[in-house]
Amino acid sequence: MAILVFDIETIPDIESGRRLYELHDLSDEDTANALFALRRAKTGHDFLPHHLQKIIAISVVMSHASQVKVWSLGEIQADEQELIQRFFSGIDKHTPTLVSWNGSGFDLPVLHYRALLHGISAPTYWEAGDTIQGFRWNNYLSRFHYRHIDLMDILAAYQNKAFAPLDEISTMLGFPGKMGMSGDKVWQEYQAGNIKGIRDYCETDVLNTYCVYLRFELMRGIISQNEYQHAIEQLRHHLAEQIDKPHLQEFLTRLNTGT
After folding, report:
1. What's the DSSP call for residue 96?
2. Could you tell me where the DSSP H helices lie in 22-103?
3. What's the rounded Cα separation, in Å, for the pair 66 and 140?
4. Coil, strand, or helix at residue 58?
5. Per the structure, how many domains does the chain have?
6. HSE-up of 5 (CA within 13 Å, CB side)?
7. Which of 67, 132, 183, 211 is the most exposed place for a label (fewest CB within 10 A)?
8. CATH code for the domain of 93
9. Rounded Cα–Cα distance for residues 202 and 56 (Å)
10. CA triple 241-244-246, angle to 5 deg
């Protein structure tokens, strides 16, 4: 069975914002600032709604057939449509179990809206049992099915007031936790042209999610203590091979030392 852990990074959708709020004469930066201001006036914070989040990075950890690998989809210059197409094509090809941290609350709704915008087909993801019988009782869409495991949602017993940040849970469990930057800095880094730094940050976040997932599988008895340790060692071995990627080497060092 393939396991696909995923995480996305986003920036304001400048083009749609201009269209929705008639901001045609503003620069990208001024348009974003206007969107933030409008959002603050409406909600008291400047976190934009899901449909105005443009995806600039999708990072994944794939665990399959005793192998594990971390990477970001597409080349660094790939546009949003290509990233989303690659994500859903991977689901069509492998039918993996999806794993996320707050994927139900953020990543997947954003992917839905953006796939809708770009006209991207994702038949396996949207299958609910009409074509494939087994998906009736275990599909990607139901909150309580395990074909998509939103760790934040499940560990909080589906209670919003019990939600916890990935960084704190990862650190609490002895995993590296937050590295490089934070989500609220992504727009600033994007404006500075630091797409690679954003992708690197996304990869370390998805690695933390994978580590927490392994501990979750140990807790619910899906894997044994020996299997858990073996999976962590597999991850260490893969990271050790990525000698040209400093962010993965730093993650490995902190994973080895438990800091």
Report:
1. P
2. 28-43, 80-94
3. 23
4. strand
5. 1
6. 23
7. 67
8. 3.30.420.10
9. 10
10. 100
SS3 assignment, position 7? strand
Residue with tokens 């091979």: 241
Neighbour count for residue 127 (Cβ, 10 Å) = 20
Contact in structure between 9 and 198 (CB atoms under 8 Å): yes
0.90 exceeded by pTM: yes
- Residue given tokens 């501990």 in the structure block: 215
One digit per residue, the tens of pLDDT, for the chain of length 259 reads 899 999 999 999 999 999 999 998 899 999 999 999 999 999 999 999 999 999 999 999 999 978 999 999 999 999 999 999 999 999 999 999 999 999 999 999 999 999 999 999 999 999 998 998 889 999 999 999 999 999 999 999 999 999 999 999 999 999 999 887 777 789 999 999 999 999 999 999 999 999 999 999 999 999 999 999 999 999 999 999 999 999 999 999 999 765 5
Which one-letter amino acid corresponds to residue 174? G
Listed in sequence order, the residues at least 6 apart from 179 whose beta carbon sits closer than 8 Å to its beta carbon are 201, 204, 247, 250, 251, 254
Beta strand extents in the chain (DSSP E only): 3-12, 53-64, 67-72, 97-100, 148-150
Beta pairing class for 3-12 and 97-100: parallel
How far, in whole angstroms, is CA 182 from its chain's centroid?
13
In sequence order, the 6+-apart residues with CB closer than 8 A to the CB of 165 are none
Q: Give the structural domain span for 231.
A: 3-257
